[in-house]
Amino acid sequence: MAKAFSTRAENYSKWYNDIVQYAGLAENSAVRGCMVIKPYGYAIWEKMQAGLDKMFKDTGHSNAYFPLFIPKSFFSREADHVEGFAKECAVVTHYRLKQDEKGGGIVVDEDAKLEEELVVRPTSETIIWDTYRQWVQSYRDLPILVNQWANVVRWEMRTRMFLRTAEFLWQEGHTAHATREEALEETYQMLDVYADFAENHMAIPVLKGIKSASERFAGAEETFCIEALMQDGKALQAGTSHFLGQNFAKAFDVKFAGKTGKLEYVWATSWGVSTRLVGALIMAHSDDRGLVLPPKLAPIQTVIVPIYKNDDQYKLVCEKAAEIKKELEQFGIQVKLDDRDTHKPGWKFSEYEFKGVPVRIAIGPRDVENGTVEVARRDTLEKEVVPMDNLGERVQGLLETIQKVLYQRALDFRESNTHKVDSWEEFKRLLDDKGGFLLAHWDGTPETEQKIKEETRATIRCIPLEKSEEQGKCVYSGNPSPGRVVFARAY
RNA sequence: CGGGGUGUGGCGCAGUUGGCUAGCGCACUUGCAUGGGGUGCAAGGGGUCGGAAGUUCGAGUCUUCUCACCCCGACCA
Q: What is the complex's ipTM, to 2 decimals?
């Protein structure tokens, strides 16, 4: 019957790969560590881009584009930054190829060596701050609120579709401000934007928090993040917002004259989310029958499948189906009428099921006669025969319901997999049992954090912003702790 | 970068004392029937067995080297 699908319980990572493959989201490419994002997967990314881009614009940001290549010397300006990224940078050393004189095909032309090597951007802080120096002279030039949609390269040893690839697509916002307060406010604002997007578009609840020093972005003063919980009990960082202080302004000498004429360094932020969100989306909602997409990010929100036995019926049913499509589109619903005669209805049902299309409408001769259609929901797999009247309204309502149900389901899952833990034994047991978020006391030292990581592979995902002040004892060392932090094994 | 594994039509695999024309499932093409949950039957097309060298009358099969990919660790969004 159905294509052999791995289940989550059997083999979670195989299940994930199967979904990516069968739903047509992406595939491996000829280049190690780099994936081809296929049209259906890219369509999801485009919907994410559209949603986020509007939110960025609504908060006063503009898009721009900076070069893919960064002079190597730029990188070494900020000490922490180089150290953080040095191990995973691709470097361009030559600019020409030539025919091998010995007949070995095309080779690098050693005469075409670059005077200064170029780093393929792993992130753009350096080139952007080198540019901002030119843009900023007075407090009147501030703030600069710029975002760019781009690809970046981080030479990863081990890669996984969408979650970690050598090249990935993302957006990176880079802002410059006159005061520390304003930059901090921006950092928080963008964190809120990300949380809003995750919860209301992706239907994934997230924890907002601060990263511990060891997990902090290289070059940042403080890193904020949103953390989501996947169905296998592992955490996934879904977005980050960094308060960069004056680190990059100092490294690139970006100063402005304040109202009193005094020269001051600019305050900075940067924030980003990547195609990793597609991975989060897959792992948050999908089931053993395939992908499940929240309506707001589904490239196809409703699919109509005609059912027929002969040409006459085909014509009759498709005509009606086209009318329905038109009606739904008037409600702003993205509809696909799959009138291909090359595939059978059952085949189509399966296909749209593992592609995660939220609502499926089947219409056959019986329906045309009775003035009904069959409406099926991807989230609950429920089917219902309903009248054709007011179908647009009904489907619109259904899509809204599905969006809510998915969020609620993900929230319930997170709630039931978040535990306060006070003993080291329980900490280890829960982690091995089912994973999830563990709220535990931590003495605040990197040493303890490191030890916990070595012994359990769990890391501090964040120090929650909405924490209840609670004195306690560190779950590992027993030393005093000012509050609980979130531990989990993570992607 | 360490440990393990796999390379055979598009995909998934079988082929293990070396032997004849390299096979199976899915997919593909054609025809007929079928059509409310991956439809059935029949007939077809498609391979220098990852690459190189070697042993041999003879290599998918044995030896050496090499490349690629996957899984598990260390590092990371």
A: 0.84
